[in-house]
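User: Just a sanity check before I run the rest of the batch. Below are the structure tokens for the first item. I only need the designed sequence back.
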């Protein structure tokens, strides 16, 4: 029996793609003056939302970083909404739950000869 580990490349590519996408969105939005809130809200909704508990995934963390980049690069546009959000997240960080993404998945794969042998034994 041959044991193979699935490549992390796909997952890393997806995470890197998401990171680059939200950062590019943040940069593009920061060049709009004034930036319509509806456009910023697209990025804002990807960020972790603090309620009774704060759960942070790798994607929501990347979105928060991108939102912070937007906030700084846009000369603090929408500070009436974003600054309270950042402060609330900051207060909740001590009790936040960080979800780890599954980084490795072991998959059992049989060589064709072994598979045929197993199938013939069952017959």
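Assistant: Here's the designed sequence for the first item:
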């Amino acid at each position: 029996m041959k044991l193979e580990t699935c490549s992390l490349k796909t997952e890393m590519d997806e995470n890197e793609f998401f990171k680059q996408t939200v950062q590019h969105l943040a940069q593009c939005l920061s060049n709009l003056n004034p930036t319509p809130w509806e456009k910023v809200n697209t990025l804002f909704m990807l960020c972790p939302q603090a309620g009774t508990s704060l759960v942070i995934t790798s994607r929501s963390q990347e979105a928060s970083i991108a939102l912070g980049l937007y906030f700084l690069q846009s000369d603090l546009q929408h500070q009436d909404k974003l600054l309270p959000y950042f402060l609330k997240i900051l207060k909740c960080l001590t009790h936040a739950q960080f979800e780890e993404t599954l980084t490795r998945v072991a998959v059992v794969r049989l060589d064709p000869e072994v598979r045929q042998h197993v199938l013939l034994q069952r017959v």
